[in-house]
Amino acid sequence: MRRAVPGYAPPISTPLPVPTTPTVPGRRTGIDRAPAVIARSIIVVSFAFMIFPAIDLAVARGVADGSVFVLAQDPFLKGLRAFGLGSPAWILGLMLLLILVHRFLPRRHAICRPHKPLFVLMSFAAGPLLIVETLKPLIGRARPRQLLDFGGAADFTPVWQFSDACARNCAFPSGEAAGAAAALSLLVFVPARLRWVAALILAPVLMMIAGNRVLFGAHFLSDVVLAWLFTMLAMAWIWRWMQPRAARIDRALSSGRP
Fold it and tell me: What is the C-alpha to C-alpha distance for residues 45 and 74, in angstroms, rounded to an integer?
């Protein structure tokens, strides 16, 4: 039998510290780096098409049969274009509906946090509307099917070269390609763990919609690629601004509903 020693207290054992992952001050996340990466890609791609403008003509000639873009009459490609033209209206309408549901109906009817549909709306406003509709009349680039090489009356101009060959609805950049890129903003509704899988499924379809414009003789390859990158840059900037303010935006789009 152990006897107690007067005035003696056993030492108190302290738990071992749990190792933690050290944080690196000022460490940048993927969304912080995305705008710079996309902006550099725009510069590199632009210089490539400016230094080698024959790429655009070679691709246009490669998809044409002589001076005719025969794929413009392909039923599947025509259907794909019709889908690409019609889907933005449905997407934007659904996003507005989600915001209105969150704003005016009881909380139990909310489907998602309202900053997500707002991000989709802002992506379409920035890419296909603001950027595209600003650059089209400013650059004034004629479409491939408007060129002398393909039975038209206009001369070819490299990307970023100002021209008076077109006054409205010009080639650079492609509005439909920008709209296809903006549709990637829908990935914000997919859980983060499944987002890459969803992107691998959605992106090829959207790229087909964008590339379809080259097959139709409506756009050069550079029109499509740069329109896609412009929209991706706008989306990256918007999400970078929105993400830390998401809770505040959600409160602003709510109305103290039960």
Answer: 30
